[in-house]
């Protein structure tokens, strides 16, 4: 029988109203939002459900909002007794994946993400950085692009999202100069992304240092199933190693293509994206063939997805 993996989205998938239907149906979900709000110091449910959109886009709000939406779905799935063989999350989503596997309690996941988002926001304010999406260049061409931009400033690969879609990250002026070069190298598109900073680049090193202090104070537990990490694209089960990888993840590229390929090698043929949007489902379709992809975002998704999953058990 084919294996199943849960996938959890990261920053950029948020939208006003996400999670509200779950909140209104399940008392346990209300409790999750209440607990998260106590840790964060503001009403997470209110800003998630009513916005405004500009507020929800702020890194310090977006990250915990997506985390809690994703983990709310796990409560609904728990009633069905379903458990994946593996999990992974894209950048921020890795915290949802780790909580789903039991590496982190819900409270510790929110605490860690609260430190992460604040530290990343502070790093953004310290240096003017940005990111750009490069469409149509393979990994070798991206390496050429990054190498040729080195004399200009900071320009590194940040997200290997699919075989022909990579995000680069660095200081604003250098990334801006990289766009025409990317097109010279054959990119179909090269566009700046509407982000607040240079995520997954050396400019985030101050955030990594602050995150390490918080993570060192959190007890990570042995998991119920492995999580394929962003940094290694390998199934990880060692709590201490996972803790170190989360610190590295702040400045290292997200190896998403390699993560999906690793799942395939491990026998995973069924993927369930859990949380806002369907970005990761699209990346699976672009990377793998002969796999089944489902998503859990809004309440109507639940009956369809849970029915298919239970049929396969």
The counted number of beta strands is: 10
Report the sheet-strand fraction.
15-25%
Strand line-up across the major sheet: 2-1-9-10
Instruction: Briefly note the structural class of the backbone.
Output: alpha/beta
| Radius of gyration, taken over Cα atoms and rounded to an integer in Å | 19 Å
Based on the structure, what is the oligomeric state of the protein chains? Answer: single chain
Helicity level, as a percent range?
40-55%
Extract low-pLDDT stretches: none
The arrangement of helices and strands along the chain is EHHHHHEHHEHEEHEHEEHHEHEH
Shape from CA axes? globular
CATH superfamily of the largest domain: Malonyl-Coenzyme A Acyl Carrier Protein, domain 2
- Sheet having the most strands: 4 strands, parallel
How many structural domains in the coordinates? 2
Mean pLDDT figure:
95
**Number of helical elements:** 14
CATH topology of the largest domain: Malonyl-Coenzyme A Acyl Carrier Protein, domain 2
- Head-to-tail CA distance between termini: 9 Å
Would you state the CATH class of the largest domain?
A: Alpha Beta
């Amino acid at each position: 029988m084919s294996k199943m993996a849960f996938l959890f989205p990261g920053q950029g998938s948020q939208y006003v109203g996400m999670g509200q239907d779950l909140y209104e149906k399940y008392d346990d979900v209300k409790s999750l939002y209440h607990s998260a709000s106590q840790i964060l110091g503001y009403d997470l449910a209110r800003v998630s459900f009513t916005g405004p959109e500009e507020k929800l886009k702020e890194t310090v709000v977006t990250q915990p909002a997506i985390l809690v939406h994703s983990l709310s779905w796990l409560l609904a799935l728990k009633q069905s007794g379903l458990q994946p063989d593996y999990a992974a999350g894209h950048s921020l989503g890795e915290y949802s994946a780790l909580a789903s596997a039991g590496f982190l309690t819900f409270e510790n996941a929110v605490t860690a993400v609260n430190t992460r988002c604040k530290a990343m926001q502070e790093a953004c304010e310290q240096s003017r950085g940005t990111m750009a999406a490069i469409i149509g260049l393979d990994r070798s061409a991206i390496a050429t692009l990054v190498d040729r931009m080195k004399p200009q400033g900071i320009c590194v690969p940040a997200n290997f999202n699919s075989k022909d879609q990579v995000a680069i990250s660095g200081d604003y002026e250098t990334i801006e100069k990289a766009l025409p070069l990317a097109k010279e190298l054959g990119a179909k598109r090269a566009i700046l992304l509407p982000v607040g900073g240079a995520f997954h680049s050396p400019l985030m090193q101050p955030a990594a240092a602050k995150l390490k202090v918080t993570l060192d104070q959190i007890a990570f537990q042995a998991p119920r199933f492995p999580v394929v990490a962003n940094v290694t694209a390998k199934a990880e089960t060692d709590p201490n190693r996972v803790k170190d990888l989360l610190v590295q993840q702040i400045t290292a590229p997200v190896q998403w293509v390699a993560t999906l390929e690793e799942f395939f090698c491990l026998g995973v043929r069924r993927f369930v994206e859990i949380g806002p949007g369907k970005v990761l489902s699209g990346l699976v379709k672009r990377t793998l063939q002969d796999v089944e992809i489902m998503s859990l975002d809004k309440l109507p998704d639940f009956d369809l997805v849970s029915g298919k999953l239970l049929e396969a058990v």
